[in-house]
Structure of Carboxypeptidase Q:
Amino acid sequence: MRLPNAAVGDAQTSGFGWDVLTDLVDVGSRMAGQEGERRGAEVVRDAFERAGARDARIEEFEVPGWWRGSSSLTVHEPHERVHDGQQDVLSLPGCPSGEATGRVVDVGDGTYEEFEARADELDGAVAMASSDTPEEVDRWIHRMEKYVNAADHGAVAFVFRNHLDGSLPPTGEVGYHERPGPIPAVGVSREVGERLARYAETGCEATVAVDCRNEATTSVNVEAEVGPDTEEAVLLTAHVDAHDVADGANDNGAGSALVAEVGRILARDDVELDTRVRLVTFGAEEIGLWGAYHCAETSDLDDVACVVNLDGACSSRTLRVGTNGFEAMGAVFRAVTSDLDTALSTDDTISPHGDQWAFVQEGVPATMTSTASTQSGRGWGHTHADTLDKLDSRDLRDVAVQVAEAVARFASDGVETPHKSREAMREAIDAGYEQELRMGGRWPYDDAA
């Protein structure tokens, strides 16, 4: 099927999605399990209702919460220097409170090989790794792996330095399977990190101090529906939570706004769907995909035709789709972008990063749908700079048209998206990602699977 021309024209002239995004970033912090996340969820619920979706609702579930306090990095030698403001240093969610002093050992980009090469120096040290991954490595090395490697090698603290310019310390969940993690951890800017790396060449001692709070709390998912009341459903999803240091504009306010805007387009009287579309925004993605897992565990997955997950989808107008090996979904996106004469970047690697993983691991067809960017790594994401001014309303409208067209096709009788078994997914996942998941205690399969 194709969206009616009137629906496309409406989408290209609508300010609805941008207004929702503006309302979300104006909430302020939407940190998982905290008041701002709930306020963001209420913005989305109200947007679903205005969009014409039915049964808009908020659902609670428990999560291991984390509250940021103060943190500092004090260099004692060779030159004393104190970094103690959030513009200089940020503690990493999931780490414990504590203070530790040691030699700074720079492990470069934090690959497994770099950790092993410095293994004799890491016991009792402050380990520092870049947020970058070298081009010769065939997959992205996640911050969690670098943190766990540091702790496993006996480091007393971890420093995560941004590889991008701009005096922007990065934040992000350390991903340890037990909360809190074993050692304090902070993010620092590239500029601070480069200075520390230079000092470490001849000997540098530093103290990392973190004050934070780890305790159970509740997060929320928001859900509504459009289309016919069928048992089977296509899920259109995004996460509404964001790290507390910025607006979370592209990661992932834009994704939540797009779910609402695409829902509005599909709810039009002139759009005919054969299958129900569930609009879902998840909570607590940034601290462990908790909202997605809650949704997957409380849904009959046999009735989930497929999942289109939006995350970081407003950095350009070029869709980037990770198919996780579900070729039927990739084919639909290729057909949509061909028909609309728009660009598409695709990858079929099965990746555990993003809310779609809660479904992919069970064999449910699901994509990670974002937009291509010229920035390296997360770009502005997970820093103070993930703000509304970096985005363009025209990009949001173009992406909304492409995603609405794709979801409408997934919700038509003529498109099939076959499921796979858990065993097939286990066998297909890359050994590197298996290593990452096992290291973080998040491998979802039995060895005998």
Summary: The first helix runs from residue 5 to 13.
